[in-house]
Amino acid sequence: MAEAIAAKRKSGWASIALGILFWLPLLSGVLSRVVKHSVWFRDYGAVGCGAEKWLQGRALYDQAQQCADIQALSYIYPPYLAQALAEPLRLLGQQNLMWAYAGVYVLALVALIWIVIRSDRDVAGAKRSWFMGFLTGSSIYWGNVAVVAHALIGASAVALRKHPIALIIALTLAAAVKPVFLIFAVVFVLMPWPLWRRFVYLVVALALGVAPTAYFMATGGALAEDWRRVVVWAVYTDKLGDGFFGWLDLMRLAPATTAASIAYVGYAGLMTLCALLIAEGLKLDLERRVLLGLSLAVLLIPRLMPYDFWLLGPGLLGATAAAGAFAPVPARWIERGYLLAGIVALVGNLADLADVTQRIAMLALALVFVGFAGWVVLKGLAAPRALWTRIWSGAEAAQA
To answer: pTM score, two decimals?
Structure first.
């Protein structure tokens, strides 16, 4: 008995040590910035510089015009973000405005870390760290506004049971800054609601989310055209990321083609179908459906950047834990697939090979996810008639 307890304790410490290992790229990157006294928040600096340009009446999207008092990357957001910050900038100044943003940013990081480590009590703590290997120090020290958007969406989604409208508001705000965040509306597709309710929430979220961008493109004139050119350059030329566009780049295929767009629609449809099969076949509860929807949305982001990985793991691990409750062996193999992808990402980030390894790891995750859904089908957990009943009437009604 004593030997068994000692072996279990040793195994527990080994799991904790492995879990900590996956945080190394993130922690070492941040520590390196602190030690070297490097510049922080350059991504946010683009927004601050954009607000300064707006105040001074300068060309917002002229990359040759920068701001002397702030180190910034190129401003690629819609003009109304710079316009919204112009008055606070005039009152506070660049340095104080950045400190105010830093306070919001820290709260966003706390929310994201809480979702990662506390979202599903049935998932071992060490396993929740497997996906941290995808994150690097740049996920924090660049200060990208996407981190705040991810936190807003994640926190609103976790509160979806009582306040579904909160997620719609969060998506509308996030999509006004980056339209790509509308992908997270896929969360509504997986809810245990009747089909009509899922459809209504999805359509409302998409309509409200796309409205600001559509209105600006229709009425913005030359400014809208300038923004469109900057976005096309950033998305299709500057950095293709580690998701679908990154895979195309590995195959030496251009993402800005009709064929690539059709392929992406097929990929997004397949992944959403897989998530629906897993959610309905395993009869996931609402909380795990929400987390699965968040993870699915990350998999669907075509231009996946380092700051986009925060919400990748919880939903995948939660769904696998549900499968493990009655089929431990297949669930362990699925988890091993996640672990292998996490190790590839971890090694690549530590060895400065992330340009290739991140893309390979994400492709591996997508394939494991498809295999997970295939197992659900082969196991007979997603019989067409029962599946349709759960989707049409709502999982909660079908179960009653």
So the answer is: 0.92
Hey, how many other C-beta atoms are within 10 angstroms of the C-beta on 249?
17
Q: Write the DSSP string, 22-90.
A: TTHHHHHHHHHHHHHT----HHHHHHHHHHHHHHHT--TT-TT---TTS------S-HHHHHHHHHHHH
Q: What is the pLDDT of residues 225-281, one digit of tens each?
A: 999 999 999 899 888 999 999 999 999 999 999 999 999 999 999 999 999 999 999
More confident residue, 291 or 118: 291
> How far is it, in rounded angstroms, from Cα 279 to Cα 286?
9
d(CA 121, CA 262): 39
Q: Give the residue ranges of DSSP H helices in the chain.
A: 2-21, 24-36, 42-56, 79-92, 94-118, 125-128, 138-141, 145-158, 164-177, 195-219, 221-233, 244-250, 258-281, 286-300, 313-324, 328-350, 354-378, 384-393, 395-399
Q: What is the DSSP letter of 256?
A: S
State which amino acid sits at residue 344: V
Neighbouring C-beta atoms of residue 107, cutoff 10 Å: 13
Q: Would you state the pLDDT for residue 400?
A: 44
Compute CA distances 191 → 204, 241, 280, 318, 382, whole Å.
15, 29, 9, 15, 16
Q: Which residue has the higher pLDDT, 33 or 72?
A: 33
CA dist., res. 173 & res. 167, Å (int): 10
Helices 195-219 and 79-92 sit at what angle, rounded to 10 degrees?
A: 70
Tokens of 67: 């701001």
Tokens of 84: 């919204």
Burial of 384: CB neighbours in 10 Å, binned 0-12, 13-18, 19+: exposed
Amino acid at 211: A
